[in-house]
Design a protein that fits this description.
The chain is an all-alpha fold and about 100 residues long. It is built from 4 helices and no strands. The chain has helices at about 10-40, 45-50, 50-65, 70-95. The longest helix is centred in the first third of the chain and has 29 residues, at about 10-40. The radius of gyration is 17 Å and the shape is elongated.
Length: about 100
């Protein structure tokens, strides 16, 4: 991968962004596999939803966003949507066991 300042034109910038986006999507897929694996250890629907864990996770992601120079509100919204989807999927797996 090139550093952003090494890109000679918009095409190279877009290629690098595409590479990063692919890595992000692969990481989200891997994260999803762990979410489904977690369903094996849950003892109730409440433990799947884990509201306290959800809240704490969002706060941690906000901190990580700040440390990385990103808008914490945007990062929280991304994770809120993502994890709500994962919780729905985990509930399906939990209920099917």
């Amino acid at each position: 991968m090139k550093d952003p300042d090494e890109c000679a034109n918009i095409h190279e910038v877009r290629e690098e962004i595409d590479i990063i986006d692919r890595e992000v999507i692969e990481a989200l897929s891997k994260r999803f596999q762990y979410v489904i694996a977690a369903a094996r250890f849950k003892t109730s629907e409440a433990s799947v939803k884990a509201f306290d864990r959800f809240h704490d996770m969002l706060q941690q992601r906000r901190e990580w966003a700040k440390e990385s120079g990103l808008n914490p509100d945007v990062v929280e919204n991304i994770y809120r949507d993502l994890v709500n989807y994962y919780i729905e999927e985990e509930l399906k797996h939990y209920k099917s066991k």
